Amino acid sequence: MGCCDTPGLMPVSDAISILLESTTPITQIESVALVDAQNRITASDICSPINVPPFANSAMDGYALRLADLANSKTLKLAGKSFAGIPFEGEWPQGTCIRIMTGAEVPPGADAVIMQEQTVVEGDNITFTADATPQQNIRPVGDDVKQGDVVIPKGTLLTPREVPLLATLGIGTVEVMRKPRVAFFSTGDELRQVGEPLGKGEIYDSNRYTIRAMLEKMQCEAIDLGVVPDCPEKLRETFLKAADEADVIVTSGGVSVGEADYTKDILDQEGEVGFWKIAIKPGKPFAFGTVKNALFCGLPGNPVSVLVTLHVLVQPLLAKLAGYTQWKPAITLKAKAETRFKKAPGRADYQRAVYRVDENGELLVATTGNQGSGAFSSLSVANCFAVLEQDRGHIEPGETVTIEPFNAVLN
Ligand code: AMP
Ligand code: MG
Within this chain, do residues 111 and 219 fall inside the same structural domain, yes or no? Predict the structure, then answer.
């Protein structure tokens, strides 16, 4: 069973280890304005230059006071106001309180804020109807972030959760990693560009759209080298051009054993082949290697194989290359099969599937049906991969299945 049925196929985890070992992170750093920092990877730990909040401030609209004064009298005279941006200044006499708004600076010496709902106001006399505890409703200096704290570690992707944090700290420019440059092209005599009429036996090139869309989601600079026919000389030329322009070359098609499959031969001649066949379905004929200083990822031609191998194999490589050390693989969960999943032992299947939570809170997963590696339409109705382990055969309803909900790259 398992690997013995398919000798020579490399398990997915081994393939990922080799891909990662072969990848050296980019070292070039760029400085970008905060408005352009989203989707970039931090090149160093970012420490806070200030305390947040920078001054003790009120969490409520109410009155700042000294608890010692409140112990003497429940009614205190109003001595002034502190508004957000317009703090109370001057002398603050004993036995009085200060009107204060949310976010306004708490006057030095105040040790509590009482919310206005707990007061009775008669002219300048404020009567407090509730007791107060020390520091209540006061947000101390540095409560959220302390000056010098590492707020964002090196190797973090900047998202809507980090960009405003940097603004809070007054950081207007950020040191980020240079984006990986990825040159890509499709191969195949049968391929026409979108917009051209289809001749007999021809199909549209969709893989370049998959590759570009995913590369952009993976924060790469995508260099489109078009469609290359199944012609060894044209392929060689494009390989060498790609190697000069990019850190990584991604191609689709021509890595099988058909008569027009030249990609691997040219990789052999112009570079080095790392490995070739992987125990993954779809996506078995994946070629990896190097051409000059560029890494080479030769994806199969089948459209679903392109998406799956980019997701499973190329994504970790690009994350490492980009210096995205905080990258994590998509989360996996255990779900109960609602349908049968057809599978042969020998390869890890990444099947298109739909998960849902039923009325009892149980996680269920159903196949989308046709799992052909050209059946791209099922991807847009799927919301996860059913990741079916290499050694497993058919899965019957009720069995437990590992699922991987689509991550940000696929959503
Ligand atoms: P290949 O790996 O080159 O033998 O291609 C496998 C299958 O994928 C064939 O049916 C091709 O026509 C199809 N295919 C290859 N490249 C593309 C592409 N860029 N867009 C859509 N289908 C493709
Ligand atoms: Mg082909």
Answer: no
Shared domain for 291 and 193, answered yes or no, is: yes
Is the pLDDT score of 253 beyond 90?
Answer: yes
pTM check: above 0.70: yes
Among the bound ligands, name the one nearest to the CA of residue 191: 1
Residue 395 Cα to ligand 1 middle (Å): 29
From the CA of 256, the nearest ligand is: 1
Q: List CB contacts of 140: < 8 A, sequence separation 6 or more.
A: 56
What helix, strand, coil percent values describe the chain, rounded to 5? 20, 35, 45
For 378-399, how does the pLDDT look when each residue is reduced to its tens digit (9 = 90+)?
Answer: 999 999 999 999 999 999 999 9
395 belongs to a structural domain: yes
CA distances from 39 to 32, 163, 312, 329 (A): 11, 10, 20, 17
Domain CATH for 37: 3.90.105.10
Which 3 state secondary structure label does DSSP give 308? helix
Look at ligand 1, atom 16, and give the residue with the nearest C-alpha. 301
For residue 39, tell me if it sits in a domain. yes
- Distance from the CA of 237 to the center of ligand 2, in angstroms? 17
Look at residues 289, 321, 353 and tell me which one is the last residue of a structural domain: 321
Same domain, yes or no: 132 and 196: no
**Site residues for ligand 1, CB cut-off 6 Å:** 186, 188, 190-191, 203, 205-207, 252-254, 256, 258, 300-303
Closest residue CA from atom 11 of ligand 1: 301
**Is 146 within the bounds of a domain?**
no
Kindly tell me if the per-residue pLDDT of 2 is higher than 60.
Answer: no
Is the pLDDT score of 5 beyond 80?
Answer: no
Report cis status (omega within 30 of 0) of the bond before 49: no
In this structure, are strands 57-58 and 112-115 parallel, antiparallel, or unpaired? unpaired
Taking the centre of ligand 2 as the mean of its atom positions, its distance from the CA of residue 377, in whole angstroms, is 20
378 lies in the same domain as 342: yes
Which residues surround the ion ligand 2 when the cut-off is CB under 5 Å? 188, 253-254, 301
Q: Do residue 41 and residue 168 come from a single domain?
A: yes
Please give the residue range of the domain that contains residue 191: 12-28+179-321
Picking from 350, 359, 348, 353, the residue whose alpha carbon sits closest to that of residue 389 is 348
* Residues 83 and 130 occupy one common structural domain: yes
